Amino acid sequence: MTAAPKRDRLAERREATRAEILNAAWEIARAGGLAAVTLREVAARVGMQPPSLYSHFASKNAIYDGMFGQAWADYLLVCRQSVASVPKPPRKALLYMVQTFVDFALVDPVRFQLMNQRMVIDFEPSAAAYAPSVQVMTLFRDQLARIGVSADGDADLCVAIVGGLVDAQLANEPGGQRWTAQLPRAMDMFADEVGLPAPRLRRRR
Amino acid sequence: MTAAPKRDRLAERREATRAEILNAAWEIARAGGLAAVTLREVAARVGMQPPSLYSHFASKNAIYDGMFGQAWADYLLVCRQSVASVPKPPRKALLYMVQTFVDFALVDPVRFQLMNQRMVIDFEPSAAAYAPSVQVMTLFRDQLARIGVSADGDADLCVAIVGGLVDAQLANEPGGQRWTAQLPRAMDMFADEVGLPAPRLRRRR
DNA sequence: GTCTATACTGTGATAGAC
DNA sequence: GTCTATCACAGTATAGAC
Prior knowledge:
The structure is a homodimer of 205-residue chains. By secondary structure, the first copy, chain A, is mainly α. Chain A is elongated and about 60 Å long. Chain A contains 8 helices and no strands. Chain A has helices spanning 9-32, 39-46, 60-83, 90-106, 109-116, 127-146, 154-172, 183-193. The N and C termini of chain A lie far apart (70 Å). The first copy, chain A, has 2 domains: 8-58, Arc Repressor Mutant, subunit A; 64-205, Tetracycline Repressor, domain 2 (Orthogonal Bundle), CATH 1.10.357.10. The interface between A and B is large, with 38 and 38 residues. Chain A binds a DNA duplex (18 and 18 nucleotides) through residues 10, 14, 17, 38-40, 48-52, 54-56, 59-60.
């Protein structure tokens, strides 16, 4: 009989503390914006002295980095769970995928800021934290290819359009839907461009 | 004989000092990013002690605000100067206008950051600084209407597409043109959507 | 390994003298 | 208007207790 898989209680506890710190940071960010995240405030919430955080994160930006990785990992999970329920018709599939992203973005604007804008002036994501976002893009390209959209630059253009709409919405009218309501129209436009079959979901004006 | 227009030398000098401060801030930002702009560095460049800056700007964000207004005012000027040279054919006109914006954005990424992203975490533009950007949008809508694009949301969609492409370019590959090279294609796509006449400038794939 | 205590540096901002 | 002096707060480094 082989030895039972050894639980590394130390590593578990360490990981739990890291998660606790990140959760506190998310709370603060959601309540007062990313700028409100200070080491002192985070430390106070987890019951530590500020310098103690350095036992778990090398710097404040390392905390942002952890949040960045978490956010993209969460979205990767959402994507994978939604793969099964993507509709078959190409245009419906396209709209479903980008709508999933937009919903994810709008439900937590601060998270979207961290994921997609370079909101925190001196923060550059590490390779490790960047990995899940690359996986998301790969998955998206695969799904696009499955409905026949695989030309160079097609995915780039699609992502730029969706990102542009969400950015404009959050920057100019947070909470509204003046821009995001144009998502179906924009995706029909894109579908026409890349030559997707099937009728338009919405008539042209 | 009427009195000569009274030159307010004091106001002139005051305005000159403000401009000097903003110029110093632009220099620093271009060299080291917006985060590098500190009151001490600005003061050093204009030969002042840091607190003296408060005689001219109420806060550091007020300096960002001044830069924001300057940037949009500059672009408004570029737009007005280019109005005369916009080509007649609708699709060419459209591409010319957005290309003007993209060129303006790419030539100074830091300026674009300040203008279009909420890069500085706690900065919200004042009404005064916001005014020229509103004028730019009004001018853009007018020019769109002149080529027959006037439906609600058309300008919004166009701006979102262009902004999305520039954002993606600067965020993922500053200095490259993987995304911005798709501008003609994207504008043809948009032109098809809004029913602009004339042949596509580029063939579909 | 983990946390505390203390301290250093740099930041934006204020008060008051000249 | 500009200066000097000073403040409160930030992120961070280090030493040492457990």
